[in-house]
Amino acid sequence: TPKGSCLESVKIAIDTGYRHIDGAFVYYNEHEVGQAIREKIAEGRISREDIFYCGKLWNTCHPPELVRPTLEKTLKTLQLDYVDLYIIELPMAFKPGDAIYPKDENGKIIYHETDLCATWEAMEACKDAGLAKSIGVSNFNRRQLEMILNKPGLKYKPVSNQVECHPYFTQPKLLEFCRQHDIVIVGYSPLGTSRDETWVNVSSPPLLKDPVLNAIGKKYNKTAAQVALRFSIQRGVVVIPKSFNPQRIRENFQIFDFSLTEKEMKDIEALNKNVRYVELLM
Ligand code: A2P
């Protein structure tokens, strides 16, 4: 994001009423997020307890001995004492070091063998140390979740699993599995992404142009974006819509003054294409 735009957007979001902020070291804007939160606390608009900040452990930091120092670095950048949620961003590890995407001479990512269960134990230690109130995962499939859930001596279960989730990718099986295990699904790309070709599968049609979402929106005087977000929260999926536009930041918050009927929920569920926008090909 251009310098300063994240700071401004987070401040507008907090003024609008947002409290859950989804961040990551790898977004390179945690310093601006932290500044926005601290400014709003200084203004007296919120207190630290009102904010729910989620940080993420990047792939190059999976070895257990790197977990706590990595979180401490994030806290230093944020200038906060703790994060509300700390999650393993992806289940695969990259070679530790300064390169975020370490590559060999052929341009292939260099992976790193680590034991996800050992990484998880280091996450548990961060919670015990009070650096993270809760711990979770992201982009984990059922098998990977089961590996953690069945780990001998498990101290804390993942509270959440952040995965792609929206009307074109509804994740019915994973959602049901997570429900059974009290794991909250946090849906990323709830609006169908920014369609940036460098990381998005743009052969899948744009979600917000969908005729069903738009027709339902018309009925409630809402946009397709608002219908998509309402659909997710109404089925118990947390949404983290991304916008750097003040008007759309506000628009995305106006989803608590209407509800979708059972039939509309079913009609939207039927839009599922089982195709990801975010393929994470690395
Ligand atoms: P912008 O930042 O210009 O608002 P997702 O949350 O699924 O990743 O989608 C993010 C993309 O959707 C961004 O490109 C964002 O652009 C755009 N966006 C966010 N809110 C809306 C909205 N209410 N209507 C249309 N596009 C939106």
From TrEMBL:
The record marks K56 as: Lowers pKa of active site Tyr. Substrate binds at H112. Pfam families: Aldo_ket_red. One of its GO terms (molecular function) is Delta4-3-oxosteroid 5beta-reductase activity. It comes from the Eukaryota. Residues 7-272 form the NADP-dependent oxidoreductase domain. Gene3D superfamilies: NADP-dependent oxidoreductase domain. One of its GO terms (biological process) is bile acid biosynthetic process. The active site is at Y27. Belongs to the aldo/keto reductase family. This is AK1D1 dehydrogenase. It comes from Sagittarius serpentarius (Secretary bird).
